[in-house]
Design goal:
It is built from two helices and no strands. The protein is mostly helical.
Length: 91
């Protein structure tokens, strides 16, 4: 196994990790921004007001995107398993 193969696998792993984290992070960002805007408009600075809706939205995003996330992870793992013989020099 050469350095280019290791770097390629690491790059693919980071891309898959970013793709899997994106729906949850974007959801938390959008809900957090909306709640912060609402808090600044109403001048209501309650800590639970920003945490609870964000936690609920992230949980909903996980439920909605879970099938796609598992499919992406399984396809990445299968791709790695199919590359093993080539990485070891056997094919």
């Amino acid at each position: 196994m050469d350095t280019n193969a290791v770097l390629d696998i690491c790059l693919q792993a980071m891309i898959v990790a970013a793709k899997l984290a994106a729906p949850v992070l974007v959801t938390a960002l959008v809900v957090g921004l909306a709640i912060s805007l609402l808090q600044s408009i109403t001048q209501l600075q309650e800590a639970t007001l920003s945490f609870v809706p964000k936690a609920v939205a992230v949980a909903i995003a996980l439920v909605v995107c879970a099938h796609w996330m598992i499919t992406e992870m399984v396809s990445f793992t299968n791709e790695l398993f199919t590359r093993i013989p080539g990485l070891l020099g056997g094919g």
